[in-house]
Amino acid sequence: MSLWVDKHRPRSLDQLHYHHALSARLKALAASGDFPHMLFYGPSGAGKKTRIAGTLLELFGKGVEKLKIDQRVFLTPTKRKLDVNIVQSNFHIEITPSEVGNYDRVVIQEILKEIAQTQQVDLSAKQKFKLVVIHEADSLTRDAQAALRRTMEKYMTNMRLILCANSTSKLIAPIRSRCLLMRVAAPSEEEMRAVLDYVGKREGFAIPDDTARLIAQDANGNVRKALLVLEALKMQNTDLSSSALSIAKPDWETYCHKVADMIIQEQSPARVMEVRAKLYELLSHCIPPSVVIKTIAEKVVDQVDDALKADIMHWAAIYEARMRVGNKKIFHLEAWVVKVMSLYKHFFLGFDMDAGFDDF
Amino acid sequence: MSFFQPQATKAAQKQSAIDPQHQPWVEKYRPKTIDDVSAQEHTVAVLRKTLTSSNLPHMLFYGPPGTGKTSTILALARQLFGPDNFRSRVLELNASDERGISIVREKIKNFARQTPRAQAVASDGKTYPCPPYKIIILDEADSMTQDAQAALRRIMELYARITRFCLVCNYVTRIIEPLASRCSKFRFKPLDPSATSARLAQIAAAENVPLSPGTAAALVATSHGDLRRAITYLQSAARLATSVAPPAPITPRDVQEIAGVVPDDVVVGFAGALGIEPLGTGGGDGMDVDVDAGGKATGFDGVRKKAKAIIREGYSASQIIAQLHDYVVAHPTLTARQKARCAMVFAEADKALCDGADEELWILEVGLRAHKAIASDS
């Protein structure tokens, strides 16, 4: 028995619930036989992968659903071995090169060349080319992206690429200019409720209006999250009446909120140490530090005076950027916490906040 | 001449083994001779001399993407050697090939060392100058490591008699000085709008794509002098337009969507939340219009709401910032000081995004700081 998210995932472009114009466009492209490289981008849970799968089905027919998982070994120039998982069918191949971190260039070069040099052997195939789907394309290193540039042009006859990314900001311009960009926006609240209603109907129950609204608001455009929440709620109480209902936040989120409360309550070195222990706890549970800083900042901002809000977000942005460049995440998290505490205290003691952040 | 014609058509057939219908137009319409290269008159004039004099210096081509650097050198090599000698005389390496120091020491050195083979008889009946040297094209040379570049230095001098190098790069500053000084430099400038639209019109005519002046203008505006990008967009737009049942004409809106450009109303809406009044509210009395009176929430919550909406719609942060920048800089009622402060915010945000910072935080940050800058002395 699978999760509802997977069970009711639309299999073809026709079954999709929203962005019909986009679906029609994809369908037309797949039918035209002249298929470009594509770049799907949009927030997570908006349905990028579902659309890619739908497009593949449209292009190659049922054959793409017969997947096999392969583990391949690559050798870096320094003779280190890399294991990469590859999902493939007869017609396409899916890779997540960012799994191997800095060595993603090797994977890209090897796999793409290998695929590009062999033609489609299956004579019954609908298309002459093979497709390579690259997930998390925005976390490819610069080197790997540079390696893609010329390959995309050179091997156009045998191969097409579909890139899937959260944002185009981290992709270099030459790649963007070689792809047809497909923006997959998050669904609006009504569209989300339509999806929820559909799943409810398929499972044989009706969702009260209030509950549906609550779930849609909580998910903030992320359909995957909404469906997971819906399933969890259904498990907890079967009638889904909204009076007794509350959406359980994930543990890390409540934990982050606790940290935010601690920062507001007291500003002292001792409190910094306590916060630090909590931050370590969060990091050791593999919560990405940028998510941590964002969640805490949002929560802190809700509780402070208007005059402080802009500054707190400003420093959150600054320290988050430094965190990416730097090496040790906890330093920057702590620095931000201390900064916020000092801002807060200064504000209440009525000191003039002149140091450094007012004079850009 | 009639004697040669059958052979010529055979050669042409062999080339079209790749289905031309599925070929990207960028490749299909790559200039065949250097005279076809758009809008780089100076470089072309210099190179045309080499065709007659059969003397060629080492060369360094630099300039922004899509200005015809690779096309020029490939066309030149083809004109010098002809299709038959091309393979044995030209080595093309780019960033998708392994190009560490070991490759420089082995592959490049080996190729550079070979004495050029005797000229094969051209099968298509034309005569080519076929000068007695080989050409090594190092495409995207700015992504070569410093060490690999250093290893090239001596090789370039040692085999200068029989081998010419052509380095192609975007950023000339990434090429180490000793290499740069061994080459004669050619700067490729971004294409001006008229050259771009002329070329686009030519391709559109060849592909039977109706191209309205508005669409051409949109293509030129979104491509910023990058001809490859303009052609790719044109092809994508043509694909979309012809794939629906009655082929629809290409609209400027299609081009913008393909280019990933954020619609103007989103940018104006975001700018409105920052306290920048829309351009349309009347020139002279625009100052009197109170933005808050329009019912829009400004201040922290307003900006935050807008930023969240932008992220939800999936627009890219760098694109938003670039367009917001254009909007602010061209805005008639903002003071120079306000504009300067905003520009500083945009610059910092761009750097942060380049480093891979979180998009939502930085859109919010740009919004808040620009809001502050605009509120500070208006």
UniProtKB/TrEMBL annotation, chain A:
<dbReference type="GO" id="GO:0016787">
    <property type="term" value="F:hydrolase activity"/>
</dbReference>
<dbReference type="GO" id="GO:0006281">
    <property type="term" value="P:DNA repair"/>
</dbReference>
<dbReference type="Pfam" id="PF21960">
    <property type="entry name" value="RCF1-5-like_lid"/>
</dbReference>
<dbReference type="GO" id="GO:0006271">
    <property type="term" value="P:DNA strand elongation involved in DNA replication"/>
</dbReference>
<dbReference type="InterPro" id="IPR027417">
    <property type="entry name" value="P-loop_NTPase"/>
</dbReference>
<dbReference type="GO" id="GO:0031391">
    <property type="term" value="C:Elg1 RFC-like complex"/>
</dbReference>
<keyword id="KW-0539">Nucleus</keyword>
<dbReference type="GO" id="GO:0031390">
    <property type="term" value="C:Ctf18 RFC-like complex"/>
</dbReference>
<dbReference type="GO" id="GO:0003677">
    <property type="term" value="F:DNA binding"/>
</dbReference>
<keyword id="KW-0235">DNA replication</keyword>
<dbReference type="GO" id="GO:0005663">
    <property type="term" value="C:DNA replication factor C complex"/>
</dbReference>
<dbReference type="InterPro" id="IPR008921">
    <property type="entry name" value="DNA_pol3_clamp-load_cplx_C"/>
</dbReference>
<dbReference type="GO" id="GO:0003689">
    <property type="term" value="F:DNA clamp loader activity"/>
</dbReference>
<dbReference type="GO" id="GO:0031389">
    <property type="term" value="C:Rad17 RFC-like complex"/>
</dbReference>
<dbReference type="Pfam" id="PF22534">
    <property type="entry name" value="RFC_C"/>
</dbReference>
<keyword id="KW-0378">Hydrolase</keyword>
<dbReference type="Pfam" id="PF13177">
    <property type="entry name" value="DNA_pol3_delta2"/>
</dbReference>
<comment type="similarity">
    <text>Belongs to the activator 1 small subunits family.</text>
</comment>
<dbReference type="InterPro" id="IPR050238">
    <property type="entry name" value="DNA_Rep/Repair_Clamp_Loader"/>
</dbReference>
<protein>
    <recommendedName>
        <fullName>Replication factor C subunit 5</fullName>
    </recommendedName>
</protein>
Automatic annotation (TrEMBL), chain B:
<dbReference type="InterPro" id="IPR050238">
    <property type="entry name" value="DNA_Rep/Repair_Clamp_Loader"/>
</dbReference>
<dbReference type="InterPro" id="IPR013748">
    <property type="entry name" value="Rep_factorC_C"/>
</dbReference>
<dbReference type="GO" id="GO:0003689">
    <property type="term" value="F:DNA clamp loader activity"/>
</dbReference>
<dbReference type="InterPro" id="IPR003593">
    <property type="entry name" value="AAA+_ATPase"/>
</dbReference>
<dbReference type="InterPro" id="IPR008921">
    <property type="entry name" value="DNA_pol3_clamp-load_cplx_C"/>
</dbReference>
<feature type="compositionally biased region" description="Polar residues">
    <location>
        <begin position="1"/>
        <end position="18"/>
    </location>
</feature>
<dbReference type="GO" id="GO:0006281">
    <property type="term" value="P:DNA repair"/>
</dbReference>
<dbReference type="GO" id="GO:0003677">
    <property type="term" value="F:DNA binding"/>
</dbReference>
<feature type="region of interest" description="Disordered">
    <location>
        <begin position="1"/>
        <end position="25"/>
    </location>
</feature>
<dbReference type="GO" id="GO:0006271">
    <property type="term" value="P:DNA strand elongation involved in DNA replication"/>
</dbReference>
<keyword id="KW-0067">ATP-binding</keyword>
<dbReference type="GO" id="GO:0016887">
    <property type="term" value="F:ATP hydrolysis activity"/>
</dbReference>
<dbReference type="Pfam" id="PF00004">
    <property type="entry name" value="AAA"/>
</dbReference>
<keyword id="KW-0235">DNA replication</keyword>
<keyword id="KW-0547">Nucleotide-binding</keyword>
<protein>
    <recommendedName>
        <fullName>Replication factor C subunit 2</fullName>
    </recommendedName>
</protein>
<dbReference type="GO" id="GO:0031391">
    <property type="term" value="C:Elg1 RFC-like complex"/>
</dbReference>
<keyword id="KW-0539">Nucleus</keyword>
<dbReference type="InterPro" id="IPR027417">
    <property type="entry name" value="P-loop_NTPase"/>
</dbReference>
<dbReference type="Pfam" id="PF21960">
    <property type="entry name" value="RCF1-5-like_lid"/>
</dbReference>
<comment type="similarity">
    <text>Belongs to the activator 1 small subunits family.</text>
</comment>
<dbReference type="InterPro" id="IPR047854">
    <property type="entry name" value="RFC_lid"/>
</dbReference>
